[in-house]
Structures are given as structure tokens and as C-alpha cells.
TrEMBL record:
It comes from the Bacteria. This is Polyisoprenoid-binding protein YceI. Coiled coil: none annotated. InterPro entries: Lipid/polyisoprenoid-bd_YceI, TTHA0802/YceI-like_sf. Pfam families: YceI. Residues 37-204 form the Lipid/polyisoprenoid-binding YceI-like domain. SUPFAM superfamilies: YceI-like.
């Protein structure tokens, strides 16, 4: 299974194991100066990863199942809490044998560790739309700090369907999977150690 290349500690490649990620968010100061709970819409939650394969090309994969919510005050840009969970065996790279290998104990060990979890610990905003999210990522039974760069794309009433106030967010991070003990293919250069995580989501205010 290949490994991505853009570093920043935050979440692993085969994070597919049920990655339980927790996303906090920043957003333009708005109407209510009080924290609200935002639930990530599972139908608009994309969790991708990139990792290098023998130096030839990156392998692009996804976790098809994830959920999460956070408590956030849009006016003060303060994140009170946040948690994201990703189902490990939902890892998908469009190749059955590779996906089975990714779920095995060489990588995600989805049988023993079905969920990958991210718990937010802090948010530093750099502007109305940019910020750095700190948190703890639990993978393969180990917990280590990660940092994600977060962008608020839009904060508005949804134009159809649920018609609720919704935040549109993008988050990126790069981590070393070996930090979580996932070392298969690292020493011989078959699979990159760096894994780039790509998160795109819509979060609905409750």
C-alpha cells in the first residue's frame, strides 16, 4: 500500500482503520455569540489519503465511513470540543487485494482496531477563514498529537434539503505512519512512510 508525501503530523495512511477523527472548525464571526453543536453530514464527508508506492506514483484512497461533531462559537472563533471517528475497514483504493492488505495487521489491523479517532484539543485562528487545528489521533491503539490546517469555505443557510445553517470545511495534514507503529514497507521503500490526509466536509448546526 503506497504512502503520500506532504508532511505534517496528523493522521495516517491506512488510517482507514476506522479513523476516528475529531474536527474543530473556524468560521466567519456570525450571528450568535454562543457555542453550537455542529454535526458532520455523513453524505458530505470525504476522507482521503495519499501515499507513495515504490517511488513510482502515489496511491490515492478513501475511508468510506466516518462521522463526527464539534462544539464551536462562530463569533468568537472558539472551539470547545470536537471528535471524528473513521471506520478502519472502510478503507478503499479501488483494488480488492490491496484493500484487504490495507485492512490487515500490516497496516490498519481493522479487526483489532475498528475505529480511528481524532479528538480536537485546540484551534488557533489566523483569519476569518484559516486556522490550525490541534488534536490527538488514536490509531492501532496508540495516541499521538497531530496538526491540521483548516479552511472555512462557506458559512450559510443551506439552499435546499435540510435548509439549516451549515459550515463547509477543508482540512489537510501529513503524518508519519511509523509514529503509530505502522512500519510495513518503510525500510525497503515499498510504501512511503508519509501519509497525506485530505478531509472535506459539511457540518450542520444543530
Amino acid at each position: 500500500m503506497p504512502t503520500p508525501r506532504h508532511p505534517t503530523p496528523c493522521s495516517p495512511l491506512p488510517i482507514a482503520t476506522g479513523l476516528v477523527l475529531t474536527l474543530g472548525v473556524l468560521t466567519t464571526p456570525m450571528a450568535s455569540a454562543e457555542p453550537h453543536t455542529y454535526e458532520i453530514d455523513p453524505d458530505h464527508f470525504s476522507i482521503g489519503f495519499l501515499t507513495e508506492h515504490i517511488g513510482y506514483a502515489d496511491t490515492l484512497g478513501m475511508f468510506l465511513e466516518g462521522r463526527g461533531e464539534f462544539v464551536y462559537d462562530e463569533q468568537t472563533q472558539r472551539l470547545h470540543s470536537g471528535r471524528v471517528e473513521i471506520t478502519a475497514d472502510s478503507a478503499f483504493t479501488n483494488h480488492d487485494d490491496r484493500d484487504d492488505h490495507l485492512r490487515s495487521d500490516d497496516f490498519l489491523d481493522a479487526g483489532r482496531y475498528p475505529t480511528i479517532v481524532f479528538e480536537a484539543t485546540g484551534l488557533e485562528t489566523h483569519s476569518d477563514r484559516q486556522g490550525t487545528l490541534e488534536g490527538d489521533l488514536t490509531l492501532l491503539g496508540e495516541t499521538h498529537p497531530v496538526t491540521l490546517e483548516v479552511t472555512l469555505n462557506k458559512a450559510a443557510t443551506y439552499p435546499f434539503g435540510h435548509e439549516q445553517h451549515t459550515l463547509g470545511l477543508s482540512a489537510r495534514t501529513t503524518l508519519q505512519r511509523s509514529d503509530w507503529g505502522m512500519t510495513y514497507g518503510v525500510d525497503n521503500g515499498l510504501v512511503g512512510d508519509e501519509v497525506e490526509l485530505i478531509l472535506e466536509l459539511e457540518a450542520i448546526r444543530q
